[in-house]
Amino acid sequence: MPLLELAGITKDYRLGKTFVHALRGLDLTIEQGEIVALMGPSGSGKSTLMHILGALDTPTSGTAAFDGQSLQQLSENQLVTLRGRKVGFVFQTFNLVPTLSAQKNVELPMIFLGVPKRKRAARAKELLTKVGLADRIRHKPNELSGGERQRVAIARALANNPEIILADEPTGNLDTETGGTILELLRRLSVDDGRTVVLVTHDPEAVRIAGRVIRLRDGRTVEETANA
Amino acid sequence: MLRDFLVLAGSSILHRKIRSWLTVIGVFIGITAVVALISVGLGLERTITDEVAKVFGVDTFVLAPRGSFGAARTSEGSNQYALDLEWLRTLDGVLTAAAVRQRTAFVQGQPGPEGRLAQGFLPVMGLSPELITSFSSFVGSLEVEPGGRLFQEADSVVAVLGREVATRLRVDVGQTIVIAGDADKPELTFTVVGILATADDGRPQQGFTSGMPASATTIYIPYDTMESLWGAAQDVLVTLVRTAPGRDVDEVANRAQAELRARGSRVTAITYSDISSAIGTVTSTVSAFLAGIAGISLLVGGVGVMNTMFTSVLERTKEIGIMKAVGAKNSHILSIFVIESGMMGLVGGIVGTLLGLGLSAVASAIIGRMFDVRIAVVASPVLITATLGGSFLLGAVAGLWPARRASKLPVVDALRYE
Fold first, then answer.
1. Among 3.40.50.300, 3.40.190.10, 3.40.50.150, 3.40.50.720, what is the CATH number of A32-58+74-226?
2. Do the Cβ atoms of A99 and B11 come within 8 Å?
3. What is the ipTM of this complex?
């Protein structure tokens, strides 16, 4: 059974006075453990697709299933719990909470799932060590470099041991070398831990780690290539 | 989870220190005003009741004319009543009793230089000697001019005069006055044993607390002697009753009132607890009124909290989106924001309570110096607890609306917010 299965997905939303047809009948299947790169010009619906994959948003029509579970049948709170347990997000702009230390940022998803304090702290330290920030756990985001922030974000995405990591332009705000480190981290999540990774990216380097590249245009899949 | 939310809320408050403090200032000004006013009110109440207790003692009650005290106060009826003092003294639970009766009588003094007798209708008051011996706290320090004295229990046809009336009747200590009673009773000749001294500032001494005419114009004679002139007492102004040790004053007072009423005395028994609750009603009404006015500033403080929270929600739209993306439910976001505003309220409450208590101590000292009394400083635990609880609630309620708005933000829009 595929991890994610989308069929005939459309998504319309209002932006000011105009209706945007962001997705127009998109089909997509993602298997457990693969790395998928989503590419396409801006306005092609990449971000909207990411939101639907991550259960942040629901499609206007079509069916979306996560682990065989139809997303349309879940209540808002059930969607939140699904997100909390099974999905980890990595954003282009890192999206750390500026008032909290690296450790607290990593603990955040566990707080909302009610993980006990001691267990949480241990897990956060373990993950920060794993991304190479053992000496940065008490630092606030503004005391960290871009690459370090993105590593905190990856550690946070892993907090609840999710099945899938959704990364929206994870290297977009980083220089090539730092971006390379981040991509290597993401690749290992798939290779070592068997996690599914979906990347939205323009970065040719990022495409290199993907097993599959899906190109979008005008809200539809236009090309799908398997990487060697 | 609550503890974690406290930490999250706290870190957000500390992150914008200046704004948080300004908001807290808005709250604590109001709290300070309310706490200070209520504390001063409580202090005044305590002071007054303490003073009353000093005069009254907890074992004494007063028989006043019916309808002259408390809620049943009426303008109808005489302010004098009939009383059988001897019978009252034998009532179970009564240790001793003293009464005051008053008449206006035709009084003759001494002749003037041209031989005309000084005479006139003057107030005559019959006092039980026990007033002076057993109830001295009510009478205060009555002082007579040198050479005179107050009358004692063995005295019968003696009188003590106010200064003014002594001058009018042209009498001095050792001389006599004649008082005429009812038509069927004989006139009596009283020996003046003392003349009440006037206070240093020329005003008559206050003497008695409860509605007596100024003492300088009154003739005082023993209570029992009044009977020889006017018969059984129909004209009592006030009676003081001391209960036997260990007896329940309110019980004895209620029984005395009921039995006296059955015997035709139109009296109301007033105990210490009646008076202190009456004082309590007055002072708490006044302090509630003042605190209500001060409460307006609390409202302003609350609006300040609300304003800050709205700004905070707007500023942290993206953060709310992040928290929702990593698994925060709407209820979590609501709790975090309500706790945050509640904490600002609480901090305002703590600072305000401390300042308010300090302010009330200073105010009490100033009032005390102005009126030359010691005002008790009251730090009521109930007031403090209620204030702290109330200030948290104020903050939380003010934050509820912004917090609801935060919790309802759609996650995708919030994440997209720049």
1. 3.40.50.300
2. yes
3. 0.90
